[in-house]
Write a structure and sequence with these properties.
mainly alpha; 286 residues; two-stranded antiparallel ribbon
């Protein structure tokens, strides 16, 4: 029992919000990450099969030389499919692909700030070198009849070294995570914060335009994490900090309702600004 408890504690890491609150996140284990990747890989393969069938139907009447340019286009489409899939989903509000969401994990920035698009792109393009490049080389040589035992072993060892890298570092990071400054953490499915904002005590708070302009998208994401964890002391600390910044007095017993109301109105405002092309990344941007 003590060993299990120590193992669980060893995956707990501090994650400091912009307001100085430690959320104490829990890292996702390697098995969960591998299972999430396999789920995503299956989805990508199915999509690739559909694209391939459509492409074959389109080039059915063409000769070999005429079909060659289309084959190159097909390769490029598959490359963009497998990269765009991870980048688009992880750059979204949930910071997780469908596979990650099904298993309750997500990507987070190790700095505690909001996850940036640059970080998402860096960690996912690195996957090309880690996994897809050696596998593509093996498959390509096999199709050309050039595969041999040595090259196959080299490709498999290359893939395994990168795939097993999370097992040999305490933060369970891939090479892509190490370069991008990210890690994958547990994100249990809880009640949506938007539903909480409909409660009567949350609707009692109203904010001016200037009060909502005090924060941006990065703080919105961290505020959502605080609300989802529903920790009394974290709620109280964040409510006091935000209250001081926007000039409002907040009683400790009203911390949750205050933050829920502020989250709901801040999110609505940021979404309206985003539609107009005005995106405030964080509280430091003017």
């Amino acid at each position: 029992m003590a060993t299990v408890r120590r193992a669980a504690v060893s995956t707990i890491r501090p994650l400091i919000t912009p307001e100085g609150v430690d959320l104490r996140i829990k890292l996702a284990d390697a098995g969960t990450r591998a299972a999430a990747f396999l789920l995503d890989f299956v989805i990508i393969v199915v999509a690739a099969i559909v694209i391939t069938i459509v492409a074959l139907l389109g080039v059915g009447g063409l000769g070999g030389e005429e079909a060659q340019p289309l084959f190159v286009v097909w390769i490029i489409l598959i490359f963009f499919l497998r990269n765009a899939y991870f980048i688009v989903f992880e750059a979204g509000r949930r910071a997780a692909t469908p596979g990650k969401r099904m298993l309750g994990i997500r990507v987070a920035s190790r700095s505690g700030a909001g996850l940036s698009v640059d970080q998402v792109i860096a960690r996912n393009l690195m996957r090309e070198i880690e996994i897809f490049l050696p596998l593509s080389i093996i498959l390509g040589r096999s199709e050309m009849g050039l595969a041999d035992t040595l090259s196959t072993i080299f490709g498999l060892v290359w893939t395994l070294l990168f795939a097993l890298f999370p097992l040999f570092n305490r933060d369970r990071m891939r090479i892509g995570d190490l370069l991008a400054g990210t890690w994958v953490v547990e994100a249990p499915k809880l009640a949506l914060v938007e539903d909480l904002s409909q409660r009567q005590n949350a609707r009692a708070f109203r904010f001016t335009q200037a009060q909502l302009d005090a924060y941006g998208i990065a703080e919105l994401h961290k505020l959502e994490e605080v609300l989802r964890r529903d920790d009394y002391f974290a709620l109280k600390a964040v409510a006091e900090t935000i209250g001081r910044k926007i000039g409002m007095m907040v009683d400790a017993v009203d911390s949750g309702a205050f933050l829920t109301a502020y989250y709901g109105e801040l999110r609505a405002q940021l979404e309206r600004k985003l539609l107009l092309g005005n995106r405030k990344a964080d509280k430091y941007q003017r």
